[in-house]
Amino acid sequence: MNDDKNKSMAPSGEAVPKAVVSRLSLYLRELQRLIRDGQETTSSSQLGQMLGFSDAQVRKDLAYFGHFGHPGIGYRCDELVQAVRRILGTDRDWPVAIVGTGNLGTALLGYKGFGHQGFRIVAAFDVDAGKVGGSIVGVPIYDIERLPEVVDQQRIKLGIIAVPGPAAQGVADKLVAAGVEGIVNFAPVTLVLPTSVSQIGVDLAIELEQLSFAVVSRGESG
Amino acid sequence: MNDDKNKSMAPSGEAVPKAVVSRLSLYLRELQRLIRDGQETTSSSQLGQMLGFSDAQVRKDLAYFGHFGHPGIGYRCDELVQAVRRILGTDRDWPVAIVGTGNLGTALLGYKGFGHQGFRIVAAFDVDAGKVGGSIVGVPIYDIERLPEVVDQQRIKLGIIAVPGPAAQGVADKLVAAGVEGIVNFAPVTLVLPTSVSQIGVDLAIELEQLSFAVVSRGESG
Hints:
Two copies of one chain form a homodimer.
Chain A: E1 8-9, E2 15-16, H1 18-36, E3 41-42, H2 44-51, H3 55-63, E4 75-76, H4 77-88, E5 94-99, H5 103-109, H6 112-116, E6 119-126, E7 135-136, E8 139-143, H7 147-153, E9 158-161, H8 165-177, E10 182-185, E11 198-201, H9 204-221
Parallel strand pairs in A: 5-6, 5-9, 6-8, 9-10, 10-11
Antiparallel strand pairs in A: 1-2, 3-4, 7-8
Helix pairs in contact in A: 1-4, 2-3
Protein backbone atom coordinates (compact mmCIF):
# COMPACT_ATOMS: atom_id res chain seq x y z
CA MET A 1 0.00 0.00 0.00
CA ASN A 2 1.44 3.36 -0.79
CA ASP A 3 -0.96 6.03 -1.87
CA ASP A 4 -3.01 7.24 1.03
CA LYS A 5 -1.12 10.32 2.03
CA ASN A 6 -3.23 11.33 4.98
CA LYS A 7 -2.46 10.09 8.42
CA SER A 8 -5.56 8.95 10.22
CA MET A 9 -6.63 9.94 13.69
CA ALA A 10 -6.76 7.89 16.86
CA PRO A 11 -9.76 8.38 19.17
CA SER A 12 -7.49 10.68 21.21
CA GLY A 13 -7.15 12.93 18.16
CA GLU A 14 -3.50 11.91 17.81
CA ALA A 15 -2.25 11.16 14.31
CA VAL A 16 -1.62 7.44 13.79
CA PRO A 17 1.36 6.60 11.58
CA LYS A 18 0.48 4.23 8.73
CA ALA A 19 3.08 1.73 9.96
CA VAL A 20 1.12 1.37 13.20
CA VAL A 21 -2.06 0.55 11.29
CA SER A 22 -0.15 -2.03 9.21
CA ARG A 23 1.07 -3.66 12.39
CA LEU A 24 -2.49 -3.84 13.74
CA SER A 25 -3.30 -6.15 10.82
CA LEU A 26 -0.33 -8.33 11.74
CA TYR A 27 -1.33 -8.46 15.42
CA LEU A 28 -4.83 -9.44 14.33
CA ARG A 29 -3.50 -12.35 12.25
CA GLU A 30 -1.35 -13.65 15.11
CA LEU A 31 -4.21 -13.33 17.61
CA GLN A 32 -6.55 -15.21 15.28
CA ARG A 33 -3.91 -17.92 14.95
CA LEU A 34 -3.50 -18.16 18.75
CA ILE A 35 -7.27 -18.54 19.14
CA ARG A 36 -7.33 -21.30 16.51
CA ASP A 37 -4.59 -23.01 18.52
CA GLY A 38 -6.74 -22.83 21.64
CA GLN A 39 -4.80 -20.13 23.48
CA GLU A 40 -6.96 -17.76 25.57
CA THR A 41 -4.49 -15.09 26.66
CA THR A 42 -1.26 -13.60 25.36
CA SER A 43 1.25 -10.87 26.17
CA SER A 44 2.96 -8.04 24.33
CA SER A 45 6.22 -9.99 24.47
CA GLN A 46 4.65 -13.11 22.93
CA LEU A 47 2.91 -11.10 20.20
CA GLY A 48 6.10 -9.17 19.56
CA GLN A 49 8.20 -12.31 19.43
CA MET A 50 5.87 -13.95 16.89
CA LEU A 51 6.37 -10.97 14.60
CA GLY A 52 9.92 -9.89 15.34
CA PHE A 53 8.93 -6.69 17.17
CA SER A 54 9.80 -5.63 20.72
CA ASP A 55 7.15 -5.87 23.44
CA ALA A 56 7.49 -2.10 23.89
CA GLN A 57 6.55 -1.63 20.23
CA VAL A 58 3.42 -3.74 20.63
CA ARG A 59 2.33 -1.83 23.75
CA LYS A 60 3.03 1.54 22.14
CA ASP A 61 1.07 0.65 19.00
CA LEU A 62 -1.97 -0.50 20.97
CA ALA A 63 -1.76 2.50 23.31
CA TYR A 64 -2.83 4.77 20.43
CA PHE A 65 -6.25 3.24 20.75
CA GLY A 66 -6.80 2.52 24.45
CA HIS A 67 -5.89 0.13 27.26
CA PHE A 68 -6.41 -3.51 26.41
CA GLY A 69 -4.40 -5.54 28.94
CA HIS A 70 -5.45 -7.00 32.29
CA PRO A 71 -3.10 -7.00 35.31
CA GLY A 72 -1.69 -10.47 35.91
CA ILE A 73 -3.36 -11.86 32.77
CA GLY A 74 -2.08 -9.89 29.80
CA TYR A 75 -4.38 -9.66 26.81
CA ARG A 76 -7.45 -11.86 26.39
CA CYS A 77 -7.08 -13.00 22.77
CA ASP A 78 -10.76 -12.82 21.81
CA GLU A 79 -11.19 -9.45 23.49
CA LEU A 80 -8.16 -8.00 21.71
CA VAL A 81 -9.31 -9.44 18.36
CA GLN A 82 -12.65 -7.66 18.81
CA ALA A 83 -10.87 -4.44 19.78
CA VAL A 84 -8.48 -4.51 16.81
CA ARG A 85 -11.28 -5.33 14.39
CA ARG A 86 -13.27 -2.41 15.80
CA ILE A 87 -10.26 -0.11 15.32
CA LEU A 88 -9.65 -1.33 11.76
CA GLY A 89 -13.36 -1.06 11.01
CA THR A 90 -13.60 -4.75 10.09
CA ASP A 91 -16.14 -5.48 12.84
CA ARG A 92 -18.80 -4.21 10.46
CA ASP A 93 -20.06 -5.61 7.17
CA TRP A 94 -18.19 -4.24 4.12
CA PRO A 95 -19.82 -5.18 0.86
CA VAL A 96 -17.12 -4.79 -1.79
CA ALA A 97 -17.28 -4.39 -5.57
CA ILE A 98 -14.55 -5.56 -7.92
CA VAL A 99 -14.10 -4.14 -11.40
CA GLY A 100 -12.34 -6.40 -13.90
CA THR A 101 -12.77 -10.17 -14.08
CA GLY A 102 -9.60 -11.13 -15.92
CA ASN A 103 -7.10 -13.47 -14.30
CA LEU A 104 -6.35 -11.08 -11.43
CA GLY A 105 -10.01 -10.25 -10.76
CA THR A 106 -10.91 -13.93 -10.88
CA ALA A 107 -8.04 -14.78 -8.50
CA LEU A 108 -9.19 -12.06 -6.09
CA LEU A 109 -12.79 -13.31 -6.25
CA GLY A 110 -11.53 -16.73 -5.20
CA TYR A 111 -9.24 -15.37 -2.47
CA LYS A 112 -10.49 -16.77 0.83
CA GLY A 113 -8.55 -14.31 2.99
CA PHE A 114 -11.03 -11.49 2.32
CA GLY A 115 -14.02 -13.35 3.73
CA HIS A 116 -12.05 -14.37 6.83
CA GLN A 117 -11.58 -10.70 7.68
CA GLY A 118 -15.16 -9.61 7.05
CA PHE A 119 -14.93 -8.40 3.47
CA ARG A 120 -17.67 -9.70 1.21
CA ILE A 121 -17.31 -9.21 -2.54
CA VAL A 122 -20.92 -8.87 -3.62
CA ALA A 123 -20.62 -7.63 -7.20
CA ALA A 124 -18.17 -7.87 -10.09
CA PHE A 125 -18.17 -5.63 -13.15
CA ASP A 126 -16.74 -6.09 -16.61
CA VAL A 127 -17.08 -4.61 -20.09
CA ASP A 128 -16.95 -8.02 -21.79
CA ALA A 129 -20.46 -8.92 -22.96
CA GLY A 130 -19.40 -12.58 -22.94
CA LYS A 131 -18.87 -12.43 -19.17
CA VAL A 132 -21.74 -10.15 -18.13
CA GLY A 133 -24.65 -12.14 -16.74
CA GLY A 134 -22.36 -14.92 -15.55
CA SER A 135 -20.83 -15.37 -12.12
CA ILE A 136 -17.55 -16.34 -10.44
CA VAL A 137 -17.64 -18.26 -7.13
CA GLY A 138 -21.27 -17.14 -6.85
CA VAL A 139 -20.59 -13.42 -7.38
CA PRO A 140 -22.66 -12.00 -10.25
CA ILE A 141 -20.85 -10.19 -13.08
CA TYR A 142 -22.63 -6.99 -14.15
CA ASP A 143 -22.07 -4.70 -17.09
CA ILE A 144 -19.91 -1.79 -15.97
CA GLU A 145 -22.74 0.56 -17.01
CA ARG A 146 -24.83 -0.80 -14.14
CA LEU A 147 -22.21 0.16 -11.55
CA PRO A 148 -24.02 3.23 -10.11
CA GLU A 149 -27.24 1.31 -9.64
CA VAL A 150 -25.67 -1.81 -8.09
CA VAL A 151 -23.32 0.16 -5.80
CA ASP A 152 -26.30 2.12 -4.52
CA GLN A 153 -28.57 -0.91 -4.04
CA GLN A 154 -25.93 -2.99 -2.28
CA ARG A 155 -24.61 -0.06 -0.22
CA ILE A 156 -21.09 -0.74 -1.48
CA LYS A 157 -18.44 1.55 0.04
CA LEU A 158 -15.21 -0.19 -1.06
CA GLY A 159 -14.07 -1.01 -4.58
CA ILE A 160 -11.21 -3.08 -6.00
CA ILE A 161 -9.80 -2.12 -9.40
CA ALA A 162 -8.37 -5.07 -11.33
CA VAL A 163 -8.40 -3.74 -14.88
CA PRO A 164 -5.47 -2.92 -17.21
CA GLY A 165 -3.62 0.32 -16.44
CA PRO A 166 -5.10 2.46 -19.22
CA ALA A 167 -8.66 1.70 -18.04
CA ALA A 168 -8.05 2.27 -14.32
CA GLN A 169 -8.67 6.02 -14.00
CA GLY A 170 -11.97 5.79 -15.87
CA VAL A 171 -13.10 2.97 -13.59
CA ALA A 172 -12.00 4.95 -10.51
CA ASP A 173 -14.04 7.95 -11.69
CA LYS A 174 -17.11 5.73 -12.06
CA LEU A 175 -16.62 4.25 -8.57
CA VAL A 176 -16.23 7.70 -7.02
CA ALA A 177 -19.27 9.06 -8.86
CA ALA A 178 -21.27 6.09 -7.54
CA GLY A 179 -20.36 6.98 -3.94
CA VAL A 180 -17.56 4.52 -3.14
CA GLU A 181 -15.39 5.87 -0.29
CA GLY A 182 -12.28 3.70 -0.63
CA ILE A 183 -10.45 2.03 -3.52
CA VAL A 184 -7.79 -0.67 -3.65
CA ASN A 185 -6.02 -0.27 -6.97
CA PHE A 186 -4.09 -3.19 -8.48
CA ALA A 187 -3.50 -1.44 -11.81
CA PRO A 188 0.08 -0.17 -12.18
CA VAL A 189 -0.91 3.51 -12.43
CA THR A 190 -1.45 6.30 -9.93
CA LEU A 191 -5.06 7.37 -9.63
CA VAL A 192 -6.18 10.96 -9.25
CA LEU A 193 -9.03 10.92 -6.73
CA PRO A 194 -10.87 13.50 -4.64
CA THR A 195 -9.34 13.83 -1.16
CA SER A 196 -12.60 12.51 0.28
CA VAL A 197 -11.86 9.06 -1.18
CA SER A 198 -9.17 6.84 0.38
CA GLN A 199 -6.97 4.77 -1.84
CA ILE A 200 -4.47 1.97 -1.42
CA GLY A 201 -2.25 1.25 -4.40
CA VAL A 202 -0.93 -2.31 -4.57
CA ASP A 203 2.39 -2.53 -6.41
CA LEU A 204 3.34 -6.18 -6.45
CA ALA A 205 6.90 -5.46 -7.59
CA ILE A 206 7.51 -3.85 -4.20
CA GLU A 207 7.20 -7.26 -2.56
CA LEU A 208 9.90 -8.63 -4.86
CA GLU A 209 12.10 -5.59 -4.20
CA GLN A 210 11.82 -6.06 -0.46
CA LEU A 211 12.75 -9.69 -0.97
CA SER A 212 15.76 -8.93 -3.15
CA PHE A 213 16.93 -6.42 -0.54
CA ALA A 214 16.64 -9.10 2.16
CA VAL A 215 18.59 -11.61 0.04
CA VAL A 216 21.27 -9.12 -0.99
CA SER A 217 21.84 -7.60 2.44
CA ARG A 218 21.90 -11.05 4.01
CA GLY A 219 24.58 -12.07 1.56
CA GLU A 220 26.62 -8.96 2.25
CA SER A 221 26.36 -9.12 6.02
CA GLY A 222 26.77 -12.92 6.28
CA MET B 1 4.83 -8.14 3.37
CA ASN B 2 4.95 -9.47 6.89
CA ASP B 3 7.07 -12.51 7.50
CA ASP B 4 10.71 -11.64 7.29
CA LYS B 5 11.55 -11.20 10.94
CA ASN B 6 15.19 -10.25 10.56
CA LYS B 7 16.22 -6.70 10.15
CA SER B 8 18.77 -6.26 7.42
CA MET B 9 22.03 -4.42 7.66
CA ALA B 10 23.12 -1.16 6.08
CA PRO B 11 26.68 -0.94 4.74
CA SER B 12 27.53 0.83 8.02
CA GLY B 13 26.50 -2.33 9.88
CA GLU B 14 23.50 -0.50 11.30
CA ALA B 15 20.20 -2.38 11.33
CA VAL B 16 17.76 -1.00 8.76
CA PRO B 17 14.11 -1.01 9.86
CA LYS B 18 11.82 -2.73 7.37
CA ALA B 19 9.75 0.45 7.03
CA VAL B 20 12.82 2.24 5.65
CA VAL B 21 13.28 -0.41 2.97
CA SER B 22 9.59 -0.16 2.03
CA ARG B 23 9.99 3.59 1.62
CA LEU B 24 13.02 3.07 -0.67
CA SER B 25 10.66 1.31 -3.08
CA LEU B 26 8.31 4.29 -2.96
CA TYR B 27 11.15 6.77 -3.54
CA LEU B 28 12.25 4.68 -6.50
CA ARG B 29 8.76 4.81 -8.05
CA GLU B 30 8.54 8.60 -7.66
CA LEU B 31 12.05 9.10 -9.07
CA GLN B 32 11.22 6.92 -12.06
CA ARG B 33 8.06 8.98 -12.59
CA LEU B 34 10.03 12.25 -12.40
CA ILE B 35 12.49 10.96 -15.00
CA ARG B 36 9.62 9.93 -17.30
CA ASP B 37 8.30 13.49 -16.89
CA GLY B 38 11.68 14.86 -17.96
CA GLN B 39 12.83 16.16 -14.57
CA GLU B 40 16.59 15.85 -13.93
CA THR B 41 16.95 16.81 -10.29
CA THR B 42 14.79 16.70 -7.18
CA SER B 43 14.96 17.42 -3.45
CA SER B 44 14.08 15.63 -0.25
CA SER B 45 11.18 18.02 0.22
CA GLN B 46 9.77 17.34 -3.26
CA LEU B 47 10.16 13.57 -2.84
CA GLY B 48 8.61 13.78 0.61
CA GLN B 49 5.73 15.91 -0.58
CA MET B 50 4.91 13.48 -3.39
CA LEU B 51 4.58 10.71 -0.83
CA GLY B 52 3.27 12.53 2.22
CA PHE B 53 6.51 12.22 4.23
CA SER B 54 8.62 15.01 5.73
CA ASP B 55 11.86 16.01 4.01
CA ALA B 56 13.69 15.02 7.20
CA GLN B 57 12.26 11.50 6.87
CA VAL B 58 13.52 11.21 3.29
CA ARG B 59 17.01 12.41 4.25
CA LYS B 60 17.14 10.11 7.28
CA ASP B 61 16.06 7.08 5.25
CA LEU B 62 18.67 7.67 2.55
CA ALA B 63 21.39 8.40 5.15
CA TYR B 64 21.35 4.73 6.17
CA PHE B 65 23.03 4.00 2.88
CA GLY B 66 25.32 6.94 2.13
CA HIS B 67 25.31 10.53 0.89
CA PHE B 68 23.44 11.09 -2.35
CA GLY B 69 22.74 14.82 -2.61
CA HIS B 70 24.80 17.57 -4.29
CA PRO B 71 25.13 21.04 -2.73
CA GLY B 72 22.98 23.56 -4.57
CA ILE B 73 21.50 20.87 -6.81
CA GLY B 74 19.78 18.33 -4.61
CA TYR B 75 19.50 14.81 -5.95
CA ARG B 76 20.19 13.93 -9.57
CA CYS B 77 17.20 11.70 -10.39
CA ASP B 78 19.03 9.15 -12.52
CA GLU B 79 21.92 8.93 -10.07
CA LEU B 80 19.56 8.36 -7.13
CA VAL B 81 17.58 5.77 -9.11
CA GLN B 82 20.80 3.84 -9.71
CA ALA B 83 21.78 4.14 -6.05
CA VAL B 84 18.41 2.96 -4.75
CA ARG B 85 18.33 0.08 -7.21
CA ARG B 86 21.82 -0.92 -6.07
CA ILE B 87 20.68 -0.80 -2.43
CA LEU B 88 17.54 -2.83 -3.15
CA GLY B 89 19.58 -5.27 -5.23
CA THR B 90 17.46 -4.65 -8.32
CA ASP B 91 20.41 -3.37 -10.35
CA ARG B 92 21.26 -6.99 -11.09
CA ASP B 93 19.38 -9.59 -13.08
CA TRP B 94 17.00 -11.67 -10.95
CA PRO B 95 15.60 -14.64 -12.81
CA VAL B 96 12.42 -15.63 -10.93
CA ALA B 97 10.40 -18.85 -10.85
CA ILE B 98 6.68 -18.96 -10.19
CA VAL B 99 4.93 -22.06 -8.92
CA GLY B 100 1.22 -22.35 -9.71
CA THR B 101 -0.38 -21.17 -12.96
CA GLY B 102 -3.99 -20.79 -11.86
CA ASN B 103 -5.69 -17.40 -12.11
CA LEU B 104 -3.30 -15.73 -9.67
CA GLY B 105 -0.16 -17.24 -11.21
CA THR B 106 -1.36 -16.29 -14.68
CA ALA B 107 -2.14 -12.75 -13.52
CA LEU B 108 1.35 -12.46 -11.99
CA LEU B 109 2.96 -13.75 -15.18
CA GLY B 110 1.19 -10.98 -17.08
CA TYR B 111 2.02 -8.30 -14.50
CA LYS B 112 4.17 -5.70 -16.24
CA GLY B 113 5.39 -4.07 -13.02
CA PHE B 114 7.89 -6.89 -12.36
CA GLY B 115 9.78 -6.41 -15.59
CA HIS B 116 9.94 -2.64 -15.07
CA GLN B 117 11.88 -3.22 -11.86
CA GLY B 118 14.29 -5.82 -13.23
CA PHE B 119 12.54 -9.03 -12.27
CA ARG B 120 12.29 -11.56 -15.05
CA ILE B 121 10.02 -14.55 -14.57
CA VAL B 122 11.81 -17.24 -16.56
CA ALA B 123 10.02 -20.42 -15.51
CA ALA B 124 6.58 -21.46 -14.31
CA PHE B 125 5.76 -24.77 -12.64
CA ASP B 126 2.51 -26.66 -12.26
CA VAL B 127 1.29 -30.15 -11.41
CA ASP B 128 -1.41 -30.07 -14.08
CA ALA B 129 -0.32 -32.28 -16.99
CA GLY B 130 -2.69 -30.32 -19.24
CA LYS B 131 -0.65 -27.15 -18.65
CA VAL B 132 2.88 -28.58 -18.56
CA GLY B 133 4.66 -28.04 -21.88
CA GLY B 134 2.64 -24.93 -22.64
CA SER B 135 3.55 -21.33 -21.92
CA ILE B 136 2.01 -18.09 -20.63
CA VAL B 137 3.20 -14.76 -22.09
CA GLY B 138 6.20 -16.66 -23.41
CA VAL B 139 7.19 -18.23 -20.08
CA PRO B 140 7.41 -22.04 -20.31
CA ILE B 141 5.39 -24.16 -17.88
CA TYR B 142 7.36 -27.10 -16.49
CA ASP B 143 6.27 -30.09 -14.45
CA ILE B 144 6.94 -29.34 -10.78
CA GLU B 145 9.21 -32.42 -10.68
CA ARG B 146 11.66 -30.60 -12.94
CA LEU B 147 12.01 -27.70 -10.48
CA PRO B 148 15.48 -28.63 -9.10
CA GLU B 149 16.93 -28.98 -12.60
CA VAL B 150 15.42 -25.78 -14.03
CA VAL B 151 16.24 -23.67 -10.95
CA ASP B 152 19.83 -24.83 -11.17
CA GLN B 153 20.17 -24.31 -14.95
CA GLN B 154 18.59 -20.86 -14.93
CA ARG B 155 20.35 -19.76 -11.71
CA ILE B 156 17.02 -18.85 -10.14
CA LYS B 157 17.33 -17.31 -6.67
CA LEU B 158 13.80 -15.99 -6.10
CA GLY B 159 10.53 -17.91 -6.17
CA ILE B 160 6.88 -16.88 -6.11
CA ILE B 161 4.34 -19.29 -4.61
CA ALA B 162 0.87 -18.98 -6.15
CA VAL B 163 -0.66 -22.33 -5.24
CA PRO B 164 -3.58 -23.14 -2.91
CA GLY B 165 -2.80 -22.95 0.82
CA PRO B 166 -2.54 -26.69 1.51
CA ALA B 167 0.10 -27.11 -1.22
CA ALA B 168 2.26 -24.11 -0.27
CA GLN B 169 4.58 -25.63 2.33
CA GLY B 170 5.45 -28.56 0.06
CA VAL B 171 6.26 -26.16 -2.76
CA ALA B 172 8.36 -24.02 -0.41
CA ASP B 173 10.34 -27.08 0.68
CA LYS B 174 11.04 -27.92 -2.98
CA LEU B 175 12.18 -24.35 -3.73
CA VAL B 176 14.49 -24.31 -0.71
CA ALA B 177 15.94 -27.73 -1.57
CA ALA B 178 16.64 -26.43 -5.08
CA GLY B 179 18.66 -23.52 -3.70
CA VAL B 180 16.22 -20.61 -3.89
CA GLU B 181 17.18 -17.87 -1.39
CA GLY B 182 14.00 -15.83 -1.22
CA ILE B 183 10.29 -16.59 -1.52
CA VAL B 184 7.24 -14.38 -2.03
CA ASN B 185 4.26 -16.34 -0.76
CA PHE B 186 0.75 -15.48 -1.94
CA ALA B 187 -0.85 -18.54 -0.32
CA PRO B 188 -2.77 -17.66 2.86
CA VAL B 189 -0.59 -19.79 5.15
CA THR B 190 2.59 -19.17 7.14
CA LEU B 191 5.58 -21.04 5.76
CA VAL B 192 8.20 -22.68 7.93
CA LEU B 193 11.55 -22.01 6.25
CA PRO B 194 15.21 -22.23 7.23
CA THR B 195 16.51 -18.90 8.57
CA SER B 196 18.87 -18.75 5.56
CA VAL B 197 15.88 -18.19 3.25
CA SER B 198 14.08 -14.84 3.20
CA GLN B 199 10.35 -14.74 2.83
CA ILE B 200 7.71 -12.12 2.16
CA GLY B 201 4.14 -13.16 2.84
CA VAL B 202 1.52 -11.28 0.84
CA ASP B 203 -1.82 -11.11 2.61
CA LEU B 204 -4.15 -9.25 0.30
CA ALA B 205 -6.80 -8.78 3.00
CA ILE B 206 -4.37 -6.44 4.79
CA GLU B 207 -4.76 -3.93 1.95
CA LEU B 208 -8.53 -3.95 2.43
CA GLU B 209 -8.12 -3.61 6.21
CA GLN B 210 -5.87 -0.61 5.80
CA LEU B 211 -8.46 0.88 3.48
CA SER B 212 -11.35 0.25 5.86
CA PHE B 213 -9.33 1.88 8.64
CA ALA B 214 -8.76 4.93 6.44
CA VAL B 215 -12.46 5.16 5.57
CA VAL B 216 -13.65 4.60 9.15
CA SER B 217 -11.20 6.97 10.84
CA ARG B 218 -11.90 9.62 8.21
CA GLY B 219 -15.61 9.31 8.96
CA GLU B 220 -15.06 9.60 12.71
CA SER B 221 -12.68 12.53 12.53
CA GLY B 222 -14.53 14.42 9.78
